[in-house]
Amino acid sequence: MRIRKTFKATVWAAAAICVAAVLFLGVSWIAEYRPDVRETVIYDTAEPVFLPDTLTVLSWNVGYAGLGDDMDFFYDGGKRVRDSRRRTLENLRNIVAELRKADADIMLLQEVDCDSHRSYGIREVDSLRAAFPGYVLSFAYNYRAWWVPIPLRSPMGRVGSGLVTLSRVVPLQAQRVQYPSAFPFPVRLFNLKRCLLALQFRTAGGDTVLIGNTHNTAYDAGGMRDAEMRFLGGMLRRDAARGVVSVVGGDWNQYPPGYTPSPEELSNEFFVPQAVDSQVFGPGFRFAYDDSAPSLRYLDAPWTPVPEDGEPRQRPQTTLTDFFLVSPGVRVLSVRTLPLGFRSSDHNPVVMRVVFENTAGAGSQ
Q1: Domains contained in the chain, number
Q2: SS3 sequence, 282-320?
Q3: Are 48 and 81 contained in the same domain?
Q4: Are the C-beta atoms of 112 and 124 separated by less than 8 Å?
Q5: Phi then psi for 202, rounded to 5 degrees?
Q6: Residue 13 is part of which domain span?
Q7: What is the pTM of this model?
Q8: Are 11 and 3 in contact (CB under 8 A)?
């Protein structure tokens, strides 16, 4: 009799778990973020302003202000999802201070939260808007999930996050452009929907300039990143054929042509960067990066671990995944990775200065 009761209880428990799992998947499917291929990004409208001939552009994955030098991350082989609220706010203040110090004309930021459990519901997008009143802020979601159930012991929970572009110059338009990559069901319900945040500007010489903010797939076997590059390459080639010049920056989760990673950079079983296929962009497109300093550190361990035994520990591996792509008609004057020591993010910012050659020539006539 006792065995029968135990068996029934086990069956009922298993059935309840199955029903709960089905209900959870059903709610997640109903609540799934389904963006259109192209969406106009709403921001405070004002009259467009001409883009200057010479421009300073910064790109920085700010790691939702939760991946400072004291953090590891479970996707990279660590254990944690979020830092303390106090440290998250401290990271956000440091990020704002560094952005002010860089004083770029256009800032391309990735992993900016607007209402996420991992960053304690802090509306980082609003904080940036308030901190930079002289800039136009454009925001595009690339991660919206009502509840991410992993890791099981400490779930990531609600996520609202995306790309922010801050511009001193008012653009003609800002669009969210969906990449064609997608994880299979049901993983896609809880994962990112990668995109390009594309702003268009007009120069005094009459040229159209596209400034793109990208954050490409990280945790795949490579096929999704290939699809994203083919899509982006086709889009930029078509724009170039119409006379549009372009600058795209961000966290590509790939390494640029001409950069040779060490075997250690490719040895992490959780995150393996791959080479960008430069052939998809066509002739005249060039990648700009600073190979003298890493832009990313791995998150399998904290950057500044506190040893329990007093013995120094090896820091996590670093690599280069943050850089720019420029089209014909754009001349790169300088590009530099800022050595911030991964204090407030697992990435260091990259700053590039460019001149638009056609516009510069028109302006000098």
Answers
A1: 2
A2: CCCCEEECCCCCCCEECCCCCCCCCCCCCCCCCCCCEEC
A3: yes
A4: yes
A5: -125, 135
A6: 1-30
A7: 0.93
A8: no
